[in-house]
Amino acid sequence: MTEIKKYSISEAAEKVHLTAHTLRYYDKEGLLPFVNRTENGIRCFSESDLETLELINCLKATGMPIKDIKRFMDWCVEGDTKLEERYQLFLERRESVLKQISELLETLERIEHKCWYYKTAVEAGTIDIHKSDRMNRLKQKNG
């Protein structure tokens, strides 16, 4: 029989790229109801717990507030009766992430333009190169 690997809080934190302090905070906020404790009250994390922590990281990265992650974790504990709610939550997260991606792409477009703008100015040795370009575009637009 293979022994199931258990991780201390510091080992778990290292594996999921968080701090032990963050894991303690998550536990205090009720995000880790699944984590077992030893007789002395020391948290011991399983591989499955680490996967759940990675999911929590993912939800957090989407901007989901802790209270909503807590609600999701509560639904997980409740089992299959909350499958629809969990599904809806992920649909909402998906829409939120798609919106963030769209906004970031717009931001990237502006940054790309500024990279071109300053690269051409550096190559010309002056920002004035864009003044004549702007004037030409205005003339074409109005002409």
Model description:
With 143 residues, the protein is mainly α. The protein folds into two domains: 1-61, Multidrug-efflux Transporter Regulator, Chain: A, Domain 2 (Orthogonal Bundle), CATH 1.10.1660; 83-143. Helices cover 71% and strands 3% of the residues. The protein contains six helices and two strands; from the N terminus they run ααββαααα. A two-stranded antiparallel ribbon has the order 1-2. Strand 1 and strand 2 form a beta hairpin. Helix 1 (9-15) crosses helix 2. It comes from Fusibacter paucivorans. InterPro entries: DNA-bd_dom_put_sf, MerR-type_HTH_dom, MerR_fam. Keywords: DNA-binding. Residues 6-75 form the HTH merR-type domain. It holds the Pfam family MerR_1.
Fill in the keyword field for this structure.
143 residues, mainly alpha, Multidrug-efflux Transporter Regulator, Chain: A, Domain 2
For the record, the count of structural domains works out to 2
> Percent helix among the residues?
over 70%
Strand order of the largest sheet: 1-2
Low-confidence stretches: none
The helix/strand order is: HHEEHHHH
Shape: elongated
User: CATH class of the largest domain, anyone?
Assistant: Mainly Alpha
Radius of gyration: 25 Å
Helix/strand class:
mainly alpha
Distance N to C terminus: 83 Å
* Gross CATH architecture of the largest domain: Orthogonal Bundle
Q: Largest sheet at a glance?
A: 2 strands, antiparallel
CATH topology of the largest domain: Multidrug-efflux Transporter Regulator, Chain: A, Domain 2
